[in-house]
Amino acid sequence: INKVSFRRKVDELAMLDPVPGALQTGGAHRPAQLYRVRPAYRRSLSLSARGL
């Protein structure tokens, strides 16, 4: 999977919201921004066979 294409597709779907101030630290590079699934999509993802 191409990282740029994946990121663009996730942004286009607008399924995720960034968690303000929540960063995953401990890596050698810039901390990663954490995201949560928007409430409108939670139910549909939990009902799918594969989930997210």
Q: What structural keywords apply?
A:
52 residues, alpha+beta, two-stranded antiparallel ribbon, 38% helix
The count of DSSP E runs of length 2 or more, i.e. the number of strands, is 2
Overall average residue pLDDT: 79
Q: If strands are numbered along the chain, what order do they take across the biggest sheet?
A: 1-2
Structural class: alpha+beta
Describe the overall structure.
- With 52 residues, this protein is of the alpha+beta class.
- It has one domain.
- It is 38% helix and 29% strand.
- It has 2 helices and 2 strands, in the order αββα.
- The chain has a two-stranded antiparallel sheet with strand order 1-2.
- The longest helix has 11 residues, at 3-13.
- It is globular.
- The mean pLDDT is 79.
Topology:
Elements: H1 3-13, E1 16-24, E2 32-37, H2 39-47
Antiparallel strand pairs: 1-2
Describe what is shown at a glance:
By secondary structure, the chain is α+β, with helices and mostly antiparallel strands. 38% of the residues lie in helices and 29% in strands. The protein has one domain.
